[in-house]
Design goal:
Layout lengths: L19 H6 L10 H17 L20 H18 L1 H7 L4 H22 L8 H15 L6 H12 L5 H15 L6 H23 L9 H22 L1 H5 L8 H6 L4 H6 L4 H25 L7 H20 L13 H15 L14
């Protein structure tokens, strides 16, 4: 899994969310199959409703007073500072954007970023070969503890404080852990419906975690649900971009994160992926995949403008940079087998003022409610 910056087993929670993995695997007799997109959108609606109930009359999220976790205030401040250092090291452009946010929101986003990165490292880091389902269960239990105000270490303490102050729900965090479980047991996806659910788990969840912290502009007339749906679209688009960029790297690990049915329709197979040759069939296949990723980016753009003014810049910076990765794939003649598409430092620097200018655009009068894939 490649964490896109852009965690319970399945989608079940104390709020009676449906267990999507079970619905997918075991539909009841005579039941019409529901797409992953529709099921994930149901989660989006419920997540949005949780926050909507906690909005103040000014449409701003109410930030609770800071609580002091085990230790003292200076240790908690040190924990947040460490999260900021990690974010600055691994997501430099995004980090610069967070500096325009209010101190409370900035630190909270750092804490969420670090937890997501640590979760991703479980299956994609140096010790990934030693990670077992039991280890994932322990990580989930640890998540539940920190949500109850009992953090295990300094970095957990920062997130524990964050979820105590903002209306952040545990469901997206648990769903991300479920995405890690999928990586332990699944290396092929038969169609986009399956891949979409995976992208939601490992990246779409980040948007659902972040919106309650970033806040929605008091001037926005968009529905809370539509803003959440756009945040989901950004996570999906980032993850699809990661997948297209890392085809060769994943293939060397025996993984193919591409819809098997669409590969077959293009006259391709896993053997072609492992051979790593750029052919006309591969180029045509990649063109269709890039077109889909850009569609999700387009949908995501509609929601960024609706965020709180002080929170838009880092999101715009992330979105613009990830979109450029698709441009670089095209510039490399779709060779993602032996070439890694990346955005140069110069282009990154140029993206910052562009992102800032976009962040100054006021919210639109209305945001479409439902995205169609």
């Amino acid at each position: 899994m490649k964490y896109a910056c852009v965690g319970q087993s399945g989608l079940e929670s104390s709020s009676n969310f449906p267990l999507l993995s079970n619905v997918l695997a075991n539909p009841t007799a005579g039941e019409v199959a529901i797409s992953s997109e529709q099921m994930v959108y149901d989660v989006v609606l419920k997540q949005a409703s949780l926050v909507k109930r906690k909005l103040s009359s000014s449409s701003e999220l109410e930030v609770k007073p800071e609580i002091v976790l085990p230790g003292n205030l200076s240790l908690l401040s040190e924990a947040y500072d460490r999260c900021g250092e990690i974010c600055a090291e691994y997501a430099k452009t995004f980090y610069l954007g967070t500096l325009l946010m209010t101190p409370e929101r900035r630190r909270a986003i750092w804490a969420i970023y670090v937890w997501c990165r640590r979760t991703d490292e479980l299956v994609d880091g140096p010790n990934a070969s030693h990670i077992t389902p039991t280890a994932m269960d322990r990580w989930e239990s640890r998540l539940e503890e920190l949500f109850q105000g009992r953090p295990f270490d300094m970095l957990d303490a920062a997130l524990s404080d964050t979820v105590a102050k903002f209306p952040v729900d545990i469901l997206p965090f648990k769903d991300m852990i479920e995405g890690m479980r999928m990586d332990l047991k699944k290396s092929r996806y038969k169609n986009f419906d399956e891949l979409y659910l995976y992208c939601y788990y490992v990246a779409g969840t980040v948007g659902l975690m972040s919106v309650p912290v970033m806040g929605i502009s008091p001037h926005s007339e968009a529905t809370t649900e539509s803003v959440y749906n756009a945040a989901l679209a950004l996570g999906i688009s980032n993850q699809l971009t990661n997948i297209l960029r890392d085809v060769g790297e994943d293939a060397r690990r025996g993984r193919v994160y591409l819809p098997q049915d669409e590969l077959a329709q293009a006259g391709l197979s896993d053997d072609d992926i492992f051979a790593g040759k750029v052919t006309d069939k591969w180029r045509n296949f990649m063109k269709s995949q890039i077109k889909r990723a850009r569609m999700f980016f387009d949908e995501a753009e509609k929601g960024v403008t609706e965020l709180n003014e002080a929170s838009r810049w880092p999101v715009w910076a992330s979105l613009l940079l990830y979109r450029q990765i698709l441009d670089e794939i095209e510039a490399n003649d779709y060779n993602t087998f032996t070439k890694r598409a990346y955005v140069s430092k110069a282009k990154k620097l140029l993206s910052l003022p562009m992102a800032y200018a976009r962040s100054m655009v006021p919210p639109s009068r209305k945001l479409p409610h439902v995205m169609k894939a």
